[in-house]
């Protein structure tokens, strides 16, 4: 798994590639915290994530709870159908806005 | 960091590259702690205990750590192991000790044992996925994340008298192709049917066993059909704290806990409570020939009731009997129910063969069973519904006498039998029917009508439809020469055994179903219906379908169209109950006028008003509930008059007069075709003749006085 953090027009984008499981989730979590320190509006780009385990979903929910407490917004980008299925079945999806492309994510976060 | 200053943040021991230290004796089970996992397990007779650690799904363990003697406190072994991967870990125990069955000991350190307190079990992750029979550890203890985001959900605490319970099977509910859902047979699929449940009008689902069980237990080829016989119903628990992974679409990812909690949350959002059917009377380990999974290898004498020769007492009819009134086992049951109430937001529990829970360690019934008392007074379970199936397979029958401590309700088997016999047309039932519709004060005088869970059909026995389509059980498909299942069905096939094209008979069957639903919904107490009875589901006369993973147990959703009249009727009669608080008293009727309305709270009538006929040959009973006495006179409802006629001829029923200004309106007449058999609440047509009503043969009429 690889994580990159970039800034696009006041929005911080966390892009992940590779699987997120209990081995890699801590690194994902560290990077997410770095991103949250920079900005209260965050897009998480999961286009290149093939598998996400329970631990990965929990990092996403941690980010959501954290951002919400700062009255910021979070959007997920490019979530595969399989991961969306798991998120839906286990209730995680209800917390998130999901869009297809990074630019849609930035546009969503820039809305008031 | 604050956690760094904790001493137990650091290991003290190391073996095979694994770091660990002495753990905490409580809580039992495996618990996430800083940097590691705390393991704690009880055994009073083991002489040695080893923790066995696996990477998820691997054939061989990656480590086995013997508990150093100094890690034992009393009869509890505990240790914290560091740097384990919570999500990938599977664990078990080896217990050493004597193997002397005649003394009650069955220790065998060659077997890896499941933790009785595991919060999830791996190994049966997808329903009927073929197991590896050579697996050295088939039911693997796992950890789960206990951080579910409930938002503002909590148990609903609906007053019990307001419940309409819907008994259902997780897989059976949506597995049929006609259910048209994404993940058939799962918790997730039920979630996609919540709108259906809400629209139907029930407000409590009672899930047949969802604790981890093994559908492969005693599986065999069906001699009749050639198909597979499995443990479909699941009344055979492998672990009491774990939801069945095979019931979760995400079981293969180990996320069944989140999936089930999400279902509970969604049902609660829609005003529907969740009750679990729990099976504490026995376990999946069977009799002396059974498998060692957990309890018998950990502490056989503690967990099971044993004969003096070391065999298993069998009050459950399934091989063994959990030793529920042993203080250690009693605590496990309490811990378990507290966990489900607190962590899963479960609203209530129905205890399978609950009479067993009142037996002492030798099997004798106790007058003051400590387990039942503990459950009744438990602070965490304080608002949960506790419902007993108040009998067991050892012949203890406690309907009406179950030790209730002011809390317990009972499945009222007498209600079921009386209503069935009355609907069939048997003589001598009118007195019992009067008891049924009052919430059976003769049985529950001190406990109130809400002690009575009223039902006419449940998973065990005929469906409501089959009750009127079969005289005899037809269990051949079970492969036991039709010897299994109850014989006292009190059913009547209306003239032809099984399916028929005869429209007269089919109409009569539908009418009988509507009669049954009507009487059930106007009875005081708590009504329960069997999933599928609202659409006239059939099991082809099989009254014991525990072993079928097929159409016999899968709800056929196309029946909604085929039997649209039954569905419509079920929906409206439940709305009728909900609309009328006079049907849902917390206390028994007093048979007098205590609010000054001029009418007693309840009055009985026959074909002549004020003159009920309780003689043995009578098949007619009518009763009137005075609306001014609703909820002990605290609110005002309409008056309700119900005429039940189990005679085959139509009979005129003289109507009791209403106070000046009020008129009788027709809510239900099961003798009429759909559309005129039941009217929407508030749209009941006024009767032209306020003096009498012609009630058809085998029909029920409900009038509303307003």
Automatic annotation (TrEMBL), chain A:
InterPro entries linked: Anti-sigma_ant (IPR003658), STAS_dom (IPR002645), STAS_dom_sf (IPR036513)
Entry GO MF terms: anti-sigma factor antagonist activity
Pfam family, one: STAS
CDD domains attached to this UniProt entry: STAS_anti-anti-sigma_factors (cd07043)
Domain (STAS): residue spans on this chain: 1-109
Domain of life: Bacteria
Protein family per UniProt: Belongs to the anti-sigma-factor antagonist family.
Protein name: Anti-sigma factor antagonist
UniProtKB/TrEMBL annotation, chain B:
Keyword GTP-binding included in the entry's annotation: no
Keyword annotations: Glycosidase, Hydrolase, Transit peptide
The keyword Ribonucleoprotein appears for this protein: no
GO molecular function, one term: isoamylase activity
Gene3D superfamilies (alphabetical): Glycosidases, Golgi alpha-mannosidase II, Immunoglobulins
Gene Ontology biological-process annotations: glycogen catabolic process
CDD domains: AmyAc_Glg_debranch, E_set_GDE_N
Pfam families cross-referenced by the UniProt entry: Alpha-amylase, CBM_48, ISOA1-3_C
All residue ranges annotated as the Glycosyl hydrolase family 13 catalytic domain in the record: 167-577
Alphabetical list of SUPFAM superfamilies matching this protein: (Trans)glycosidases (SSF51445), E set domains (SSF81296), Glycosyl hydrolase domain (SSF51011)
Similarity-based family: Belongs to the glycosyl hydrolase 13 family.
Protein name as it appears in the record: Glycogen debranching protein GlgX
Organism the protein comes from: Dyadobacter chenwenxiniae
Lineage: Bacteria, Pseudomonadati, Bacteroidota, Cytophagia, Cytophagales
